[in-house]
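Input/output pair, single chain:
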Amino acid sequence: MGKITLPIETEADLERFVTGALGIKLPKTASCSHHQAPWQAFVSAFFAREPVTMWHGARGFSGKTHNLAALAVAEAVCLGADVAILGGSFQQSQFVRRYITEFFRRRELAPWVSLQLMDRFELKNGAVITALSASQTAVRGPHPQRLLLDEVDEMDQGILEAALGQPMEKNGIPAGVVASSTWQYPNGTFAFMLKQASDRAWPVYSWCYKETMKPRGWLSAADVERKRQTVSSGMWAVEYDLQQPSAENRAILPEAVEKLFDRDLGVFDGSHGEIIEIEPPQPGALYVHGADLARKQHDSVLITLRTDCRPVKLVAFWRQQRLPWSVMMGTINKQVVRYPGELTFDATGVGDAAAEFLVSNADGFMMVGRERNEMLNAFITAAEKGELRAPFIRSLYGELLFCSVDDAFGSGHLPDGFSAAALAWRAYTKQNVISWIPDPYIYWPAPNPEFEAFIRRDRPLVTMEPAVSESAQQLSRAFHAAQQAEQNEKDNQITRRFWRAVDGKGDL
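Output:
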C-alpha cells in the first residue's frame, strides 16, 4: 500500500487506502448513461462535498451496505471522524457491523482497534464507530461528524428526521450524511429523501448491477441471470433496473417526467449558482422566461424556454439561494436581455418590490386561487402531452418527479423549479401568435382562434428545430386573401339575390 499521510486529503491517497488497507476495488466507470460509478459516490461522501449524499442502488447487486461499511472505516481511520450507522432494520445494522468487523480483521487495520463491543468500535486515534438502534432516544444522542443511513426506505420517517440532526462539524472534520437505499415504495421514506435532495440540490448517485458486474466489479453474469429468473418482472424493474415505483398521487405522471428530460441535450446538477445554457441565443428565435423568486427561504429559479420549436425546449436554467435582492434581479435581467422575450414571475409576497428591479416586459403573476390552479393544470397537461423537452437537470427533474398533488393544489409546498417552469409555460401560452406579425397585416384587436389554427396547421413543426418554413407575413396575407375571397363570394350572392327580387324573379 505504501505510506499514506493522514488525514487523507486527495482522491489518489483515498484510492490507495481503499485498495491496500480495505482490500477492495470500487468500479470507477458507469455502464448506464444515467447512472454514476460507485467510486464517484464513495469519494463524494468521504470528502463531504455536500451536506447530504444520496445513494440509490440495486437490491443486493449494488454493494451499498458493503460500501457503507468501507466508508465508515475509511472516515474513522483516515479522518479521525466519529461515525454513526443507522439501518432500516436491526438486521440491516447487523449486516453493516459484520462487514466492519471483517475489515478490522485485516492485517493492515487490526492494530487500529482499541475496543470492540457489540454496537461500537473504538479506535486508537479517538474515533468511534457506533451502530444505532432505530429509536428516538438513540438517534437523539451523540453528535458524530458522519451519519450513514442504510436502506432508508425501510426506516420510520420520524426516526430518520431526528437522526439527520445528529451530525456536527468537529475538530475541523466537516459533517456529512449518506442516505443509501433501494427504492421500493413510491411514497416512502426514500422518496421523501429524494424530494429533499431535489429541493436542496443534494447529489444523487445511482448505480445498478451493470456497474458492479465483472470485469469492472465483483458480480457474475450467472448470478444476475439466476436472480432475474426468480423474481417478478415488476420487482426486477424497480429494485434491480432502478425504474420508478408506481405512484398514484404525483402531480405529473412519472413516465411523462422521464420523457420530458432528454439526456442527449445534456446532463447537469442544477445546483446553486450553476448557470446552464444548452444553446446560445439564436437569430429569429422566440423566448419566454419564468422566475420563482425567494428572499430568505427556498430557492430562486429562472427558466428560459425557446418557443419556436416543437416540442418547446428549455434552453437556460439558473438556481440560487439567499442572494441580495439587487444581485438576484440583475442576474434575471441579464438573462432576459440575452434571450429577448417576456418574463413572468411569481409576484406573491414580492409584488412591486420585484417589479421595480425587473425589465419593463416583466409580468407579475399572483399565485393564488383559481388562476394559479389553471396555470399549473396547463403546465401539467403540456408536460404529459410531451409538449416540452429539457436537458437532464437533476434538481429540476426531482422537483417535477416528486411533486405531489397536495404540493401543487393542496397544503404542501410547490417546488421552486416546478413553479418557475409553470410560470414560463404561462408566458408561452400568453405569447400571442399574432404578436410577431408586423403591421399592416393585423386587422383585429383581439386573438383570433381561427387564424391561430390556420397558422398552426400550415406551419410545419419539426422536432427541436425552428418551426419557420414561411414568413408570418406570407401566412397572414394568404389567410386574409382566403377570407376576402369568401366574403366577396357571399357579397356577390347577396347582390344577385337582391336584383333577382327587384326583377320579380325571386325572393330575398
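The domain at 11-240 is CATH 3.40.50.300 (Rossmann fold). The first strand starts at residue 52 and ends at 57.
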